[in-house]
């Protein structure tokens, strides 16, 4: 079974803008990092609401494999600029993990 890693990534962008993209409207991510985010479609709910279900394709390795994955917005914390997605179905869960949760915090 694969082990998850925790880490930080520094990007040159305003924290408020990046949080807005990830927590409220994912479509700009396709333009910001087109080489990694191939498609994101709202399947259920509203973009910026807890419970929204997204279906998309993400490039996950250096050879360009682009599997589909479903993610659900589990939490949005406007005050602390953080959000949490849980992933359901798709290649990553079928091949590597039983559960997969992405908790992101956007700091200034």
UniProtKB/TrEMBL annotation:
Pfam families recorded: Bet_v_1
Residue ranges crossing the lipid bilayer per the database entry: none
Segments forming domain Bet v I/Major latex protein: 8-98
InterPro entries xref list: Bet_v_I/MLP, MLP-like_ligand-binding, START-like_dom_sf
Lineage top rank: taxon: Eukaryota
GO biological process, one term: defense response
SUPFAM superfamilies for the chain: Bet v1-like
Record protein name field: Bet v I/Major latex protein domain-containing protein
Organism, as annotated: Beta vulgaris subsp. vulgaris
């Amino acid at each position: 079974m694969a082990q998850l890693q925790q880490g930080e990534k520094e990007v040159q962008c305003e924290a408020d803008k990046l949080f807005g993209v990830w927590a409220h409207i994912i479509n700009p991510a396709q333009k910001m990092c087109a080489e990694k985010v191939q498609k994101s479609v709202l399947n259920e709910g509203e973009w910026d609401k807890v419970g929204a279900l997204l279906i998309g394709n993400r490039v996950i390795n250096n050879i360009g494999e682009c599997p589909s994955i479903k993610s659900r917005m589990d939490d949005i914390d406007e005050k602390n600029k953080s959000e949490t997605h849980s992933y359901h179905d798709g290649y990553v869960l079928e091949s590597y993990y039983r559960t997969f949760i992405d908790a992101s915090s956007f700091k200034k």
